[in-house]
């Protein structure tokens, strides 16, 4: 029922995937962020609510719900209320085309996703880029000079870093010759993981993604330490929605990173699940339960990238705004163009020989 | 089902497009335009052209309208007083569009167009790429030269005088 391509199946998949992302991944990501930051700064971190502080996120959620929902005077009423939804909606929708595992049905590999579409990469990237509207609208609708400055700055940052992001993804699309996530993973199984074939693309992708998701060292949009961000005027649940959307975006782009560069659900570079099945003598992908190990393995890789996000945040200081722009336009874009041209030459040369 | 969805999105697209011209507040107009583009991209998907649908979101909604809203926010555009001429043209459009739609329904036989057989890979990335770099390669290259010229023009215009000398 879960895998069928009818309305019930689709609704079930949407419910389970969205519930898992917001209920489990985002929850534990926030917890991990606090625990890892505590470890890096030699603190204890949350340890009061529940065992090991595991219920801290729940307590914070309750706090957000019961806080007073202030609305500053003179705001644009509709847009002020709409902006948090404009942040959450693309964050959820972007996940619709992301596959997270594979199983074999009657000898055919079927990727697990809400929807398998052949323009999956483009869909995910274009939908997740719509999150910038929430920044613009929140900044403008707040009717206050600090949020509007923060909004302008954040929007400029997100637009600028979308270019190297797109260019680094294009190099992967060229190598795989497809815009379908499962096809890209299959190509990586047959050749090599793209992090090995195209390490520069991975580096450029990660840097741009840090800027896109407003994480340190590029957390100009939030800027909690000294400058004021686009959501300064938001409180209570509306603020929580921006917060959740940021973490959901981190999950989505990490999924894209795993699928494009780290071989998706494949076992190891040059060792596929099929090889393991042959060695062990059990058909893992065709097995009624064992195929789930591909989903777990995908989650392991995902956690690694998410850990990288947290690690970098608590290690590096922030860029100044002009340094950020200079890095984006004068370093990353030329380098990603260079990377793209080199990839093109390699792809053509491979096709010729 | 698909036909009903199509008519739903098509009417929504027209309604949003109406709102773009009827709403006074420029930011609200811009948002309606986003809604309209979304519906158009849904129409592309329903017409078996998912690539165009995604590109519609990527280019129009994700890039062009972000810049529109950005500029409107930067200049802090206010609601404008309407001149009589603007009022007249607004309501003229309001009447003209349904009349035009009625005649296009009467003259063009949509049912016949819809019944046309489509090839297997219609609307896929591969077939779009093939037609862009195959049968329409000259137009494609011409457009890229024009865009390149525009890009260089922008770079030159934004440079300050002293830096040019």
- Count of helical regions of chain A: 13
Could you tell me how far the N terminus lies from the C terminus of chain A, measured between alpha carbons in angstroms?
47 Å
Range of helix content of chain A: 55-70%
Largest sheet of chain B: none
Please identify which CATH superfamily of the domain at 2-116 in chain B we are dealing with: NADH-ubiquinone/plastoquinone oxidoreductase chain 6, subunit NuoJ
State the order of secondary-structure elements of chain B, H for helix, E for strand. Answer: HHHHHHHH
Low-confidence stretches of chain B: none
Regarding CATH, which class of the domain at 2-116 in chain B?
Answer: Mainly Alpha
Distance between the termini of chain B: 64 Å
| Major sheet of chain A | 2 strands, antiparallel
**Broad structural category of chain A:** mainly alpha
Keywords:
heterodimer; A: about 350 residues; mainly alpha; 2 strands; B: mainly alpha; Four Helix Bundle (Hemerythrin (Met), subunit A); flat
Short description:
Chain A is mainly α and 353 residues long.
Question: Could you walk me through the main structural features you see in this protein, from its secondary elements to its overall organization?
Answer:
The complex is a heterodimer of chains A (353) and B (165). Chain A is built from 13 helices and 2 strands; from the N terminus they run H-H-H-E-E-H-H-H-H-H-H-H-H-H-H. Chain A is an all-alpha fold and 353 residues long. Helices cover 65% and strands 2% of the residues of chain A. Chain A is globular, with a radius of gyration of 21 Å. Chain A has helices at residues 7-40, 56-66, 77-93, 120-128, 132-141, 145-176, 181-190, 194-197, 199-212, 236-261, 273-280, 292-313, 321-352, and strands at 102-105, 108-111. Chain A starts with 6 loop residues before the first helix and ends with a helix. Chain A has one domain (13-352). With 165 residues, chain B is mostly helical. Chain B has a domain at 2-116: NADH-ubiquinone/plastoquinone oxidoreductase chain 6, subunit NuoJ (Four Helix Bundle (Hemerythrin (Met), subunit A)). Helix content of chain B is 80%, strand content 0%. Chain B is built from 8 helices and no strands. Chain B is flat. The N and C termini of chain B lie far apart (64 Å). The mean pLDDT of chain B is 84. Classes of the chains: A mainly alpha (353), B mainly alpha (165).
């Amino acid at each position: 029922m879960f895998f069928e391509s009818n309305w019930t199946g689709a609704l079930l998949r949407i419910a389970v995937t969205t519930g898992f992302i917001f209920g489990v991944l985002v929850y534990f990501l926030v917890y991990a962020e606090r625990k890892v930051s505590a470890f890096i700064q030699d603190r204890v971190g949350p340890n009061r609510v529940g065992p090991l502080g595991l219920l801290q996120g729940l307590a914070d959620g309750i706090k957000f719900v019961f806080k007073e929902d202030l609305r500053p005077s003179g705001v644009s009423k509709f847009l002020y209320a709409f902006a948090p939804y404009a942040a959450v909606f693309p964050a959820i929708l972007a996940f619709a085309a992301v596959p997270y595992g594979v199983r074999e049905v009657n000898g055919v590999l079927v990727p697990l996703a809400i929807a398998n579409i052949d323009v999956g990469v483009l869909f995910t990237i274009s939908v997740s880029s719509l999150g910038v509207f929430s920044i613009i609208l929140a900044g403008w609708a707040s009717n206050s000079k600090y949020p509007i400055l923060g909004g302008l700055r954040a929007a400029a940052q997100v637009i600028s870093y979308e270019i190297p992001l797109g260019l680094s993804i294009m190099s992967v699309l060229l190598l795989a010759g497809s815009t379908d996530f499962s096809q890209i993973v299959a190509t990586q199984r047959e050749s090599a993981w793209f992090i090995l074939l195209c390490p520069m693309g991975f580096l450029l992708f990660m840097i741009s993604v840090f800027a896109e998701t407003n994480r340190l060292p590029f957390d100009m949009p939030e800027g909690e330490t000294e400058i004021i961000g686009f959501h300064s005027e938001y409180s209570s649940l509306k603020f929580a929605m921006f917060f959740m959307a940021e973490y959901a975006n981190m999950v989505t782009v990490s999924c894209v990173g795993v699928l494009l560069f780290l071989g998706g659900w494949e076992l190891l570079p040059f060792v596929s699940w099929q090889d393991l099945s042959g060695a062990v003598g059990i058909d893992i992908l065709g097995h009624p339960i064992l195929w789930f190990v591909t989903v777990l393995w995908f989650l392991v890789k995902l956690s690694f990238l998410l850990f990288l996000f947290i690690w970098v945040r608590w290690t590096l200081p922030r860029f100044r705004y002009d340094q950020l722009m200079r890095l984006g336009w004068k370093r990353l874009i030329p380098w990603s163009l260079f990377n793209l041209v080199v990839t093109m030459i390699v792809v053509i040369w491979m096709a010729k020989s | 089902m698909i036909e009903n969805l199509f008519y739903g999105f098509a009417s929504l697209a027209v309604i949003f497009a109406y709102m773009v011209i009827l709403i006074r507040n420029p930011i609200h107009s811009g948002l309606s335009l986003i809604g309209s583009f979304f519906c158009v991209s849904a129409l592309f998907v329903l017409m078996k052209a998912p690539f165009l649908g995604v590109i519609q979101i990527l280019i129009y909604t994700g890039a062009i309208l972000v810049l529109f809203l950005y500029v409107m926010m930067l200049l802090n555009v206010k609601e404008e007083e309407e001149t009589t001429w603007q009022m007249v043209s607004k309501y003229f459009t309001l009447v003209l569009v349904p009349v035009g739609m009625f005649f296009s329904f009467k003259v063009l036989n949509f049912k016949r167009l819809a019944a046309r057989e489509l090839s297997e890979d219609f609307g896929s990335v591969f077939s779009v790429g093939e037609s862009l770099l195959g049968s329409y390669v000259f137009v494609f290259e011409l457009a890229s030269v024009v865009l390149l010229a525009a890009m260089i023009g922008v770079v030159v215009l934004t440079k300050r005088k002293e830096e040019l000398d």
